Structure formats: structure tokens, C-alpha cells
Amino acid sequence: MADTPEATRQAPRPSEPSARELRRSAARARREARALERQAGRDRRRAERGEVRRFTRHSRRRRAVVIGIVTSFSALLAGVIAVTFSPLMSLTTIDVTGTQRLDAAEVTAALDEHLGTPLAFVADSAIGDDLAQFALIRSYSTEIVPPNTLIVRIVERAPIGAVEAPAGLELVDAAGVVVETVDAVPEGLPLIELASGEAGERAFASVADVLISIPREVAARVETVTATTRDDVTFELRGSGHVVMWGDAERSAQKARVLDAAMAATDQGTRWVYDVSAPDSLVVRDANG
């Protein structure tokens, strides 16, 4: 009996969605998209409100800090102004120190116009203007001592020697300012002998440079000083009559050492000329020939 072929079974095909189902799916997708969009909008607005709140809090804190600083500064400024202009901080005492030839009371009287001025407004330049009338003042410094005191420290001009003048002997400082007029040369100061006119003025500058540069123990022995140029300052020593050709103010300390050694090595019963103008090449000769 012949085999009959077995029938082949095919899987059933899925049915195509209907138009109605497609419309429903599309509507559902649109609803979901709108829901997501609304949720995103709510989330965004919530985030924006939170950011606004944070910014507002920060602004309030910053404003409070600024107000606090301004208030504190204003209070401090008001306090400073009140203290500055208070009569309790006004000048009532002027203390002048350092005067020797000057009368301290006279200097103080010249500054009386500043009494009653608030300490903060006592101007150093104004003090200087009032002190300019005193030729003996070389320099000055001031110190405010709260609540009411001004200290004025005076440095007077120091004479370096005496020069002859029609009115007598004038003691002059290194700038040529007359410090005092006297009848005789004070002990410890030399008589300065110079030519008159412009040459004498130039020579005086050299003499002044030398006298303020030489050691004090040498200056104390100088009786007279002469010079015609800046390089030929010459001394005559007190008592012995020795002549010292000093030259200019350079290397004064070395010249002083050379002079001391030369005087120690020579007979002091003889009047000598010691040329120390070139201290590395000392020259000593008899002053009498």
C-alpha cells in the first residue's frame, strides 16, 4: 500500500492591528509624552524656585554683612571724630628740650599760637615756620604725647671756630652761620684766619670740612686755622706753635695717627712743621728754617 504524503502544517500568521488599535496606541503615546513634559516642567519650576530661595537667602546674608560693616565703620568714624575734636585731646602743654644758648621759654612762647589746637591738627610744617626765626636752631623734631602735650626737641648750631668781625669775634658753625659774638676765643675752639671775599668763602668751606672730620683730641689742640684753597688747610697747635699742614678732609683719621706718631718721635722743645697732607709720605721739618 503506497505511503500517502503527510500534510504540512503552517503556523498561523499574526493578525494585522486594526486601525482602531493604532489610533488608541498613538493617543496613549501622546498622553504619556504630555505627562512626561508636564512632569519635566514641574521639576524645572521646582528647581528654579529652590535656586531663587537660595539666592535670596545669600543676598539677605550679604546685605546683612554689608550693613553691619557700614554701621560699625560709621560708629568708629564718629568716635574718632568725636575724640579728635574733643577739648580733652587739644594741645595744652608745649615742652621744649635741647636748648643751651637759646632761651627755652622764648621758643615756647613762639609756639603759643598752637595751644588749643586738636593734637591731630598740629602740623609739623607750621611748627617749623614758627621756629625759623631762631637762627641758632639747626634742626628739630616733634613728638605728640596724648592727651595734651607736644614735645619739641631742639638741636642747636654748634660753633666750629671764631672769625674776626667788626663787632668782635663771631663764633660760626660749619655752615658759616653766626652762633654768638664774643670778646675772646673760647677755650677749645680755634681762630679761623681767612682771606676776605669769594676766595675766603671757598676756603672756609674747606676749613669747615676739616674741622668736623678731624678727631676731637686733635681739634682740641688747634689754636689757629688758615687756608687759601680746599687742599691747603693748615693748623697751628696750641702752646707748642707746631704747624700742621693737613690738606683736605680726606683720610683725617689716618692723618691724626701719623701726626701723633711724628710728634712722639720728635723733640717737642723744637717748633716743627708736620706735613700730613699725604699721610703715606710724612714730611717733618724745622719750622725755624
TrEMBL record:
Which terms under GO biological process does the entry name?
cell division
Entry keywords, A to Z:
Cell cycle, Cell division, Cell membrane, Membrane, Ribonucleoprotein, Ribosomal protein, Transmembrane, Transmembrane helix
According to the entry, every stretch annotated as the POTRA domain falls at 90-157
**According to the lineage, what is the superkingdom?**
Bacteria
Basic and acidic residues: compositionally biased ranges: 18-52
UniProt GO cellular component terms:
plasma membrane; ribosome
* Chain intervals for the UniProt region annotation (Disordered): 1-52
| UniProt-listed InterPro entries | FtsQ_DivIB, POTRA_FtsQ_type
Query: Where are its TM segments located?
Result: 64-85
Extract the Pfam families matched here: POTRA_1
This chain belongs to which protein, by name? 50S ribosomal protein L6
Natural source organism: Microcella alkaliphila
Q: What is the lineage of its organism?
A: Bacteria, Bacillati, Actinomycetota, Actinomycetes, Micrococcales
